[in-house]
Amino acid sequence: MADEDFSKLLQQAEQLTTEIEGNEELPRVERSLGQVLEASHELYSRVIQSGPNHLQAHVLFGSKGIDLQQISQKLETLSSKRTFEPLQPIADSDIESFLKNERENAILSLIDEVNKNSLQTTEDQKWEHMLSEWNKEKIKLMNAMIGPSQNWLDLKRTPEPPSIADTPKKFGHSMLDSIEAAYARQVQQYNKLISHGAKSRTALHQKFSQVADEFNDPKVKEMWEIIKTMANIPALVRDEDPLKARGNPTIQQCLIAQGKKYLEKRYKQYMSDVVRANPAAAMRGGEPGTFPLVRGYVGLRLQGQNIQGLTDGVVDDRPLWPMVYYCLRSGDANAALYCLRKAGRDHEEFTAALEDHIRNPEQALSDKLQTDINSKYRVQIRHSTDPYKRAVYCVVGCCDVSDEHSEVARTADDYLWLKLSVIKSRSNNKTESLTYSDLQKMILEEYGETHYHAHEKPLVYFQVLTLTGQFEPAIEFLSRIPRYQVHGVHMALALHDVYMLGTPRNVQAPLLSVDTDDPVPLRRLNLARLILLYVRKFELSDPSDALNYYFFLRNLKDPSGKNLFMCFCTDLALESRDYDLLFGRMDPSTGVRSAGLLDQFNNPNIDSKVIALNAAEQLVNKGLFEDAIIVYDIAGNLEKVLELFCVLLAQVVSAGGEAGGLRARLAALAEHVSRRLRAAEASPPPPLLDAYTKLCKLCTFFDHFHTENYEAALETVRSCEVVPLRQSELEACVAGARAARGELLRALPAVLRALCHILIAQRQKLSTLAAHTATKQLEWLREQAEVLNTFAGNIAYRMPGDTYSQLAQMQILMH
Questions:
Q1: 43, 237, 302, 358 - which has most CB atoms within 10 Å?
Q2: In this structure, are residues 599 and 608 in contact, taking their beta carbons and an 8 Å threshold?
């Protein structure tokens, strides 16, 4: 039984061995039991150390025949440390190493170059994208630039040059809305008075203010009221810089007084509206004057808890110091004095100070009064519970310029009035004084648009800037508000008209700029840029209005010293291309030009003829010769007309006369030019006139040639005397070619090729004629062919090679 079991076990083992050897997928492994045990222990220890994840990785890669441990060992031996390190020097005799180094150097150089190129390409693409994004916002941003800069921006337009064949832009439907049109009518009327030399005329801000009344917009009306008030100061002179004049103490006093006057007038109107709306509660009565008005207003304003902390009794059942304050706030210091006198003799010291203030409202108090008021304020009033009393002492005595008086000054108007009131031209305590520049800097730079929520309340920000004499930032701000842009532009014109607008020395400056020579924080407004941005909308549809706006720039110069009005008119002519409308039309029979839009602005410094010449010169620079001919003709420069006409005609003289093409247009223009020449008093230079005349005849010659009217073509070229057809004409034509202008010589190759074609065609017709007649004709054709070849060889002008070869072939065909 045991033997049988052993035999059976042996048989199974042999069968298993056979199956293993027959399996080609698995390799045969010969290991002893000890080796198997050792491998088992090693595998077990590896599993314990690396964990199940590492085991799964081995199983995954092992199923594909990959030894993960061997690959890991190979990866550890790899190192990139020396990949990009400089190669070690080698001996000159080691060719193999030298070639290897050269190969590696080439590879490294290529990698380095590709890396640099990739970085550069990325950098270029980044900047290209950034510039593209920037260009979209540049126009809006550049007009809001603030700060001293020497990087001026270019005002000049750079339009794409239109094709000569394009139809010129015509002025069509007006682009002005009703508000813009109303302003434009006033501008036109005002400029007409200036052109006629009217000495006395209504100020422009008065005219614009009257127009604004028709808009039924209270905010716009209020803006113009501010401009009218601030412009009502002693007249400034044209030759003085407005910003320097604004720094004059006298002018500053006037600006401060006008600012206070507006705020006081407005507040008095507000008090009247409040009292009128509540007559029973105000109990004003029928007595006119400031005192009854303030009494009624104080009764409405101060009720219940609002009167807590007030001191020094009452006047007619109203608290004393609120009455005094609101009398001053409404601009009636005498009413405030009346309140103090009515209150009794307890306030004689302050009454004396107020009397001194009334005598010199813009001056500080006398030294004695100022000392007494300051002393009393420091000891008693500063700690008083009555905010109106503190405010009144500060307004009259300038006791504490740093106090904001927030209990009293609840609006921007109140705050500004208090600040303007404490600015005095002569202060005894300079360390605590507030200057006009300090207030301007505080509003513009310290507070700015953010503090005043300017885009939500544009009127408030405009008001605080304008009432502190900062017209330039105020107008620049309005120009960024679409609703108020039109009003801002005309406010700038109104202030410029009375020499109150500070403009930069360079017309290419940003819209708002800082001049380092100006006092802080004054700005300069680029009026030229402001007008250009405004007019661009309608300059093509309403050229007359555009010119009237440009006329305000007649006293400004561009960087090259040219009159800015004339420069802008030149640009408008180039963009519109309606030269007859702007400059007038030239009558070819009489040589008299009709009036254009620009003629109304002619004066000793402005000449529409000079503008036309400038426009024509720029048209030539742009290559628009056809337009330049028209403008030079309007300007009366016939010599330039003929020069450009010859240049253009020489290019197309041999072309077919397609309808509407350049050649057809030049042919029509030639009739006009010829009539102008006959009517002109002065004749142009003979060589130029000769070239023009002969080119016109050659144009007729090619017209006959293209219609195969060869006899007429030969007759025309014979009368032209450019090319000889007989031996007797050869010498004169050669001499004429040597003295001819280049435009005429450039047409010769085409003329000679056309004559070759004509002569060959006539040679072919000889077969139909009688022998005797054909012989004579052939001799004549041979003579012409020989003369043409001789002429081509003798003139001092090198023609294209095909012209010479065609002449030679023609002469051969004649034999």
A1: 302
A2: yes
Q: How far apart are CA 777 and CA 186, in angstroms?
A: 80
Q: 724, 814, 717: which is closest to 762 by C-alpha?
A: 814
- CA dihedral in degrees (236, 237, 240, 243; nearest 10)? 20
Measured from the Cβ of residue 556, the count of other Cβ atoms closer than 10 Å reads 17
Q: In this structure, what are the phi and psi dihedrals at residue 314, rounded to the nearest 5 degrees?
A: -130, 165
pLDDT of 152 above 90: no
For 728, residues 6+ apart whose C-beta sits below 8 A from its C-beta are: none
- ∠ CA 426-431-434, nearest 5°, is 60
Please choose, from the candidates 551, 556, 585, the residue with its C-alpha nearest in 3D space to the C-alpha of residue 569: 551
DSSP state of 314: E
Q: Is the dihedral of CA 530, 469, 436, 451 positive or negative?
A: negative
Please give the Cα distance from 670 to 678 (Å, whole number).
12
Q: Is 470 helix (H, G, I), strand (E, B) or coil?
A: coil
Output the 3-class SS for 675-704.
HHHHHCCCCCCHHHHHHHHHHHHHHHHHHH
Closest among 401, 399, 436 to 253, alpha carbons compared: 436
Alpha-carbon gap, residue 261 to 200, rounded angstroms:
27
Does residue 157 surpass a pLDDT of 50? no
Q: Yes or no: say if 225 and 259 are a contact pair by the CB < 8 Å rule.
A: no
Indicate the burial class of 501 (C-beta count within 10 angstroms; 0-12, 13-18, 19 or more).
buried
Q: What is the pLDDT of residues 340-363, one digit of tens each?
A: 988 877 788 888 999 998 988 888
**Residue 763 bridge partners (DSSP):** none
Q: Has residue 78 got a pLDDT over 60?
A: no
Please state the separation of Cα 200 from the chain's center in Å: 37
Distance CA 777, CA 516 (A): 89
| Tens digit of each residue's pLDDT (9 = 90 or more) over 634-660 | 988 889 999 998 888 888 888 876 767
Please, which pLDDT band fits residue 165 given cuts at 50, 70 and 90? very low
- Mean per-residue pLDDT for 255-274? 93
**Whole-angstrom distance, CA of residue 452 vs CA of residue 447:** 7
- In angstroms, the CA 467 to CA 232 distance is 12
Question: How many other CB atoms are found less than 10 A from the CB of residue 481?
Answer: 15
Neighbours of 658 (CB within 10 A): 10
Task: Write out the E strands in 403-553.
Answer: 512-513, 524-525
Strand ranges for 578-630 from DSSP E:
none
pLDDT of 231 reads 93
Scan for tokens 């004003």, then name that residue.
Answer: 284
Rounded CA gap, 415 and 259, in Å? 12
H/E run at residue 318:
strand 318-319
Region 236-263 average pLDDT:
90
Residue 91's pLDDT band, with cuts at 50, 70 and 90, is: low
Band (pLDDT 50/70/90 cuts) for residue 166 is very low
Chain centroid to Cα 593, Å, comes to 36
**What's the predicted TM-score (pTM) here?**
0.72
CA trace torsion 534, 539, 543, 546 (10° rounding): 20
For residue 602, give the amino acid letter. Answer: N
pLDDT band at 285 (very low <50, low <70, confident <90, very high): low
From the list 161, 213, 775, 153, the residue with the least C-alpha distance to 510 is: 153
Closest by CA position to 546, among listed 90, 187, 263: 187
- Does pLDDT of 501 surpass 60? yes
CA 313 to chain centre: 63
Q: 724-759: per-residue pLDDT in tens? A: 888 888 888 888 888 888 888 888 888 888 888 888
> Are 701 and 649 contacting, i.e. CB atoms less than 8 angstroms apart?
no
Sign, Cα dihedral of 50, 51, 57, 59:
positive
Convert the pLDDT of each residue in 16-69 to its tens digit.
Answer: 666 655 554 555 566 677 777 777 777 777 666 655 566 666 666 666 566 666
